[in-house]
Amino acid sequence: MLFRRRKPADILERARTCVWPRRSFARSAQYFAKRVLRLSATPHAIAAGVAAGVFASFLPFIGLHFVIAAVLAWVLAGNLLASAFGTAIGNPLTFPFIWGGTLEAGRLILYGNFSAIHVPVNLKRMLYHGEFGQLWEPFLKPMTIGAIPIGLVFAVSFYFLTRWATAAFRERRRRQLAEKARLRASVTHPGGSVAGSVTLG
Description:
- This protein has helices at residues 11-19, 25-37, 43-57, 65-75, 80-86, 95-111, 123-129, 136-188.
- By secondary structure, it is an all-alpha fold.
- Helix 3 packs antiparallel against helix 4 (65-75).
- The protein has one domain.
């Protein structure tokens, strides 16, 4: 394959790339944006897919974001590939803010204040015995509740932003293609005359 790595990435390299990409996060975001804008779907389908992925990223169910985003995109008649790109809003840089914000918002909605009762969690015992249920009440439940309003705000914002960007990108591309076609026509028919004119004898 062209441009294949000379040395295949090992497990440590793949793990590092998942946490910190080889490109900078700014370049990665630019790459994802270009991929989304070039999808062959309607502006609504692309925007709905991205919005579904953004909303799914605010839920605390790590490992299920792609599945949740795909289901939401299907319900909204969105593009499935765009929904996968939309989940990129959740990354190692944004997750601490997302989790902290959804946790505090959920506590405010459920208990009316931020100073909810903190239930001590024995992480070692939970991992050893697989007792993940004890995370639901103190963390996962308020994070899920808090993710709904915050996720909706960001999802709606990204829907309109993506739809506008897709329409603008396609209009700019249409103008560029029309300009190229005009230039080719001017070269083929200089001065607007028809090449190969017939001389009457």
